[in-house]
Amino acid sequence: MQIVKRAALAAVLALAAPAAFAQTTTLNGISNMHRSALSPIYANGEVKGYLMFGRGDKADRKTDNYLLDFYDQNLAKVSNVTIQKPSGRYTLLRNTFNGSAFALYFFNGKEGTLEMETYDTGLKKLGSKVIEDLSRADKMMLQQQQQSAEGGGEAAGMMGSGMTMFPVPGQGFIRNSYMGMGKGYALVMYDDKLQPKWRCASDENSKQYEMASLTEATDKYVLGVMMRRDGMMSRQVTSSMLAIDAATGKRVFDMPVETSKNEQLSLSSFTFDAATREFVAVGEYYKLDDKPFVNKSQGFFIKRFNEKGKVTSMKNYGWQREVMALMPAEAKPSLEDNYVNYNHSIVKGANGHLYIVAEQFKIVGDGLGIALTALGGRGASVSKGKIANMFVFELDPTATLSSVKFYPKTVTNALLPAGSGFLGAGLLGQVIKSQGDFDYQFLQRNEARTQFNVVFLNFDKEKGEAAKGYVGNIAFGDNGKYALDKIDLTSGATYSFVYPAKPGYVLITDYYKKKSELGMKLVKLNI
Questions:
Q1: Which residues does 512 contact at the CB level (< 8 Å), separation at least 6?
Q2: What string of DSSP letters covers 175-205?
Q3: Quick check: 228 and 253 in contact, CB under 8 A?
Q4: Rounded to an integer, what distance in angstroms lies between the CA atom of residue 124 and that of residue 198?
Q5: Three-state secondary structure of 162-173
Q6: Phi, psi at residue 217, to the nearest 5°?
Q7: Strand pairing partners for 212?
Q8: Distance between CA atoms of 136 and 148, rounded to whole angstroms?
Q9: What is the pLDDT of residues 68-111, one digit of tens each?
Q10: Model pLDDT for residues 214-248, shown as the tens digit of each residue
């Protein structure tokens, strides 16, 4: 059975679990709830608590109450404050934590401004700032995000950029913006008190259109992907790996993953290995004359670079050579059906093993979009994405592929923006991820890096019955064993979401609009 995920999202995420839970908390008087309203708080890789931002009952006719609550990892409330703002003006764009401070990022629709506020872990206000100088592209992006938020969604721009604040541990927060009509980008770093530290931006004289999408912050670098095209209407988009010095804002790494004319690589993951002080790129490789989604990839690659951008190692893992011998028989048909892998997470265990978590997708023709285009419709997409199964590839300390684990899922659809069918496989995967159309939710680990959990969504359908959703959990670690846990989804909540939690648990929230009630529960995983 194929399910259009966006249309079914409320039903998919209507979560309830028969499994035992550690604790539940119910909040009343909550008039709305979005996924970004709750932010996990991490310390050394483990969830240590949550910051919850929600809109409460109105203080009076002209004033809205916003609730800011800090919970520990067991859902015990540590502290809370009420923030009052003029009624009907504000949309929360981001709620995030960088290890020392919380940041709230608002759009004031009436004034057409952006507003930032920061708080320490005791919820004492540290700073505030109003941004009035917005480009036309900024305003267009904000309008889209506001419309999506009002409709219950979580909007982002192409490749997940949108207008957002990016947390950088030990440094502060980065605010992004767009130059002119989107010809370039600008990144501004603020400290915890919202004092500006540096600015990194496109060259105003550049002939290319540039957009930077940040993905990860390490002890020294802020990582991301840089996308370039020759003109506003150009369909040819190239990408490069981006690394910015978190302390100075200097762009220290900006290069394509291909370092030879004899390579055709599709980049889907870019991270930093702090143990070896190397940048790590992962994706799939093709023959030089092949076209992704037309021709099958040859396998996946892992390419490492030192901090000066020099290649230190490159290794290919061919489907027919290294991978097929370890791949379960049930996984082979999907590879023959021209699916490619999008790598969501790359993690290293305490045992030195490297784990790559991937999800299959492919692009196909969209009959409705093709028909609308033939009739003269503008902006209609003639392609759509199909989302399929999960993989975990395990490499031993010698970089030898030692295990391939396969987890089948029901195929779901992803609606693609017009023109996205011309993107490469890696960039198209980023579009699908930015839209929230992958089933993968997150990876969490314990502080010792001996246990990992991959959480995803899926549907089961018995003959003659309606599809039933569940939360899937893949557990693996130093003991060499893999386990799959399923949590049935059977609630009637208006919105529900699943979040990372302390080791061995996930957090599930259920929002009931008619009752203005939000329930939070820690669900123990059977691992």
A1: 492, 493, 494, 518, 519
A2: EEEEETTTTEEEEEEE-TT--EEEEEE--TT
A3: no
A4: 25
A5: CCCEEEECCCEE
A6: -120, 130
A7: 226
A8: 19
A9: 889 999 999 998 889 999 988 888 888 889 989 999 999 998 89
A10: 999 988 999 998 888 887 666 677 889 999 999 99
Distance CA 443, CA 429 (A): 18
Evaluate whether 457 touches 471 at the Cβ level (below 8 Å).
yes
- Asked if 409 contacts 436 with a C-beta cutoff of 8 angstroms, the reply is no
DSSP secondary structure string for all residues of 46-97: EEEEEEEEEE-S-SBTTEEEEEEEEEETTS-EEEEEEEEEETT-EEEEEEEE
DSSP state of 439: S
Block residue for tokens 């982002």:
156
H helix or E strand, kind and range, residue 149? helix 136-150
**Strand order in 113-119's β-sheet?**
90-97, 102-108, 113-119, 125-131
From the centroid of its chain, how far is CA 218? 17
Return d(Cα 254, Cα 382) in angstroms, integer: 32
Report strand pairing: 401-407 vs 46-55.
Answer: unpaired
Which letter does DSSP use for residue 10 in this model? H
CA distance 204 to 491: 52
pTM (2 d.p.): 0.84
